Amino acid sequence: MLAPHSKASVFDVDTTFRNIPIHPSARNFVALMFDGLVYLDQCLNFGKVSSPGIWGHVADAMVHILLNSGIEAFIKWVDDFIFFRYPRLSFGNDLYEYSYNKWLICSVAKELGWPWALSRFVAFAFFFLYIGFHWDIEKKTVELPVAKKLKYSSKISNFLSVVSHMKGEAGSVVCTLKHVTLVVPQGCSYLASPHCFVSGFKDDSQPFTCHHHTKPMVDDLNWWLEQLKLEFLGLHIVNPPPVDESFILFIDASTSWGIGLILNGRWLAWQFKPNWSGNGHHIGWAEMVAIELAILTLVMSHVKNSHICILSDNQGVVGALKAGYSRGPAQNASLRCIISTMQEHSIWLLVVLIPSASNLADDPSQGVFPTRPS
User: Fold this and answer.
1) Do 132 and 46 belong to one domain?
2) Same-domain status, 52 and 166
3) Residue 360's CB: how many other CB atoms inside 10 A?
4) Range(s) of the domain holding residue 281
5) Which InterPro entries does UniProt cross-reference here (predicted)?
6) Which of residues 83, 106, 139 is at a domain's end?
7) Beta bridge partners of 348
8) Is 113 inside a domain boundary?
């Protein structure tokens, strides 16, 4: 975590790839054809797959140079650099002395011919914009800026105002909201139906084919519209506690009987009602409900502000929890309940995939219970 009263400054590299020349011997490998003519590019372009990797070597070299020039700490994402500085001395009245300012960064760049885009420079402050989000160091928050909330609301509203769309239009909305889930992680489960809508376009050779909206997608996008109206749409930056090794929790489900759970050697089990399967209720849903019941069991045991490890033998459930959503509507609904409960009680979850033979909850999930001591 940053020390109190730390500040950050953002620098962008100008025309990143275009500043790296291509050796003449390699230019024939990046030839472009336009109107029947072949053109040789002299610099890296933004469409070349290897461009980010080549640029990465240059950026990594700059990292070492800056760190050896008096810069205390910074991070980079492609062409975005964010520099941090920490207070060395306090003069009172919120006045502090820092070890360096923007001129050190600029002087190193000038000596090397490094092209900062000064029009996008953000001076040292307690808050800043970076990768599309507003960060506040002192409040330890990151959120979607107001301008982007308005922009994205308009984009979704315009999308919903037309009853059918091409794949590219729907994909653009999904990509926009996928970025927002970096600060609204619970939103991943409200992208399940938009993802399904996009995947419903099977023939990429006909990009102008339109599909009609589905009700689940409309419902999910309306949820997003409500979120974008919130005054604060983001999250508080906290370090999760270490995994609490005092909890050993196994969960399992079986189609033949129900759901089983073993927590620190003690078991719980829930039997399915007759004719329980159907309408999306299958073994994958049951395994997700097992996770949900495990979380509720922890809450009833007054667990909060904890990082818990749950052991499961279902790969689909482990993958869905990592992704934050499931394409199965019933499974996704259970996942939303899991996320909501975790957020309410400050519970972090680590779900580990184990072999079925090692899952101690297998027996109670099939109605076979350990013998009670006499």
Assistant:
1) yes
2) no
3) 19
4) 249-365
5) DNA/RNA_pol_sf (IPR043502), Hepadnavirus_pol/RT (IPR052055)
6) 139
7) 307
8) yes
Residues 6+ apart with CB under 8 A from 74: 63, 66, 81, 82, 83, 84
Higher pLDDT, 4 or 153: 153
* Mean pLDDT across 341-347: 95
Q: Which whole-number Å values give the CA distances from 339 to 147, 244, 254, 295, in the listed order?
A: 28, 19, 23, 10
Question: For the chain, how many residues are written?
Answer: 374
Q: What is the DSSP string of 236-252?
A: E--PPPPB-TT--EEEE
DSSP-derived 3-state class of residue 62: helix
370 located within any domain: no
Together in a domain, 258 and 353: yes
Q: Which two tokens stand for residue 167?
A: 């794949």
In a domain, 372, yes or no: no
Residues 61-116: pLDDT tens digits? Answer: 999 999 999 998 999 988 999 999 999 988 888 889 999 999 999 999 999 999 99
Cα 308 from chain centroid?
Answer: 20
Give the CA distances from residue 321 to residues 61, 288, 329, in Å, rounded to whole numbers and listed in that order. Answer: 37, 9, 14
Coil, strand, or helix at residue 145? coil
- Give the three-state DSSP class for 180: helix
| Overall pTM > 0.70 | yes
Q: What is the pLDDT of residue 373?
A: 56
For residues 255 and 285, is the Cβ–Cβ distance under 8 A? no
The residue among 173, 210, 207 whose CA lies nearest residue 193 is: 173
**H-assigned helices in 95-252:** 102-112, 146-160, 167-180, 192-199, 215-227
Give the burial class of 303: count Cβ atoms within 10 A of its Cβ; 0-12 exposed, 13-18 middle, 19 or more buried. Answer: middle
Give the tokens for residue 115. Answer: 């092209």
CB atoms within 10 A of CB 338: 22
CA-to-CA distance for 252 and 295, rounded, in angstroms?
14
Q: For position 100, which CATH number holds?
A: 3.30.70
Indicate the average pLDDT of the chain: 92
Among candidate residues 80, 112, 139, the one where a domain is terminated: 139
